[in-house]
Design goal:
Helices cover 23% and strands 26% of the residues. By secondary structure, the protein is of the alpha/beta class. It folds into two domains: 2-134 and 255-328, 3-Layer(bba) Sandwich (FAD/NAD(P)-binding domain); 138-251, FAD/NAD(P)-binding domain. Strands 1, 2, 3, 4, 5, 6 and 17 form a seven-stranded mixed β-sheet that branches. Strand 9, helix 4 and strand 10 (186-191) form a beta-alpha-beta unit. Helix 1 packs parallel to helix 8 and helix 4 crosses helix 5. It is elongated. The two termini are 27 Å apart.
């Protein structure tokens, strides 16, 4: 069985930053991801442009360059691959962490490959940097399990000349609505709020509102989905039930961390904030030797932590781990 000082669950930007900082302090690290390196970014919409400038996405003091003021998805993927190569990070892609047992200083991590092969690794410390993008918030309505219901928008082309319903009215929903409309889909939006979210980016909000005002995109506000059927969707609106012809549903209702995995491993939520309970100074959880990094620290408040600030968790955690591991070393 291979043994490491630190096992990191998740190889997104925050997980990579943790690996870099741990190894900079002279300790060994292994990173696991059930998908590819920076798997969440890979699954972003193909034409996505970040809302931030390149330097705010940088990790490991490696400069990020971009052809434009704000980098796109492809540039980010290239950058994080380059960082992983530069630091020779030991990233195990397509190897899901099933769980871990043991205690601080002596954990056993169980994993599974896509092939079904299973492995065990030893680690003195664990860092959970699993993000939140893998578990969508469900609508919990009849028909949500139909194949035509999609929780991740990638690109518009496959939905040309189709009747598409978008659930939600935040940034991702509005971007999807606009791209689908421009590509020739017949777009309807439904949102429980009074209108397009006030937090939608300033260059997107007037665009989608004008499409709605002109009748090019149909929108139902103060409304919810009641049922999804093969060829239509039933909505609850202020005027009563409305049946809308439909080929595809994009449920852009957000995502959440894997709270179940954390609870199974001794990490619980603060009942007042829904945030995992951690030491604010070190980000160590209730379970000694297990740290949380990135957006999962924010619990359901996923708009509080992004790559821009989550990337700094690596230094905080690595300092705490280094102090602890050095104290265990013989003099």
């Amino acid at each position: 069985m291979e043994r490491f000082d630190v096992a990191i669950v998740g190889a997104g930007p925050t997980g990579l930053a943790c690996g870099i900082e741990v190894e900079r302090r002279g300790f060994s690290a292994v990173l696991f991801d059930k998908g590819c390196v920076v798997n969440s970014i890979y699954h972003y919409p193909i034409n996505l442009v970040f809302f931030t400038t390149p330097e705010l996405l940088e990790i490991g003091d490696i400069p990020m360059t971009s052809l434009n003021e704000k980098p796109g998805r492809t540039e980010a993927l290239k950058y994080y691959r380059r960082v992983a190569d530069h630091f020779h990070l030991n990233v195990h892609q397509y190897e899901r962490v099933l769980g871990f047992d043991g205690s601080d200083g002596d954990f056993i991590v169980q994993t599974e490959m896509l092939s079904g092969e299973r492995y065990c690794y030893g680690a003195k410390k664990i860092i959970l940097a699993t993000g939140y993008y893998d578990i969508p918030n469900w609508l919990n309505v009849p028909g949500e399990g139909l194949e035509k219901v999609i929780h991740y928008y990638r690109e518009a082309h496959p939905y040309y000349n189709q009747d598409v319903l978008i659930v939600g009215a935040k940034n991702s929903a509005c971007i999807a609505a606009l791209e689908l409309f421009w590509t020739g889909a017949r777009v309807t939006m439904v949102h429980r709020g009074a209108g397009i979210s006030k937090n939608v980016k300033y260059w997107i909000k007037p665009n989608i509102e004008n499409r709605i005002k002109n009748g090019e995109v149909k929108a139902y506000f103060h409304s919810t989905v009641k049922e999804i059927r093969l060829h239509d969707v039933v909505l609850n609106t202020p005027e009563g039930e409305v049946t809308v012809k439909n080929d595809f549903v994009f449920a852009m209702t957000g995502y959440r961390p894997d709270f179940e995995f954390m609870a199974q491993h001794g990490i619980h939520l603060d009942p007042a904030t829904s945030k995992p309970i951690t030491n604010r100074e070190t980000l160590e959880s209730e379970r000694a030797g297990v740290y949380l990094a990135g957006v999962i620290v924010a619990g359901t408040h996923t708009n509080e932590i992004f790559i821009e600030n989550g990337r700094f968790h690596g230094k905080v955690i690595a300092e705490s781990i280094a102090e602890s591991l050095k104290a265990l070393q013989p003099v």
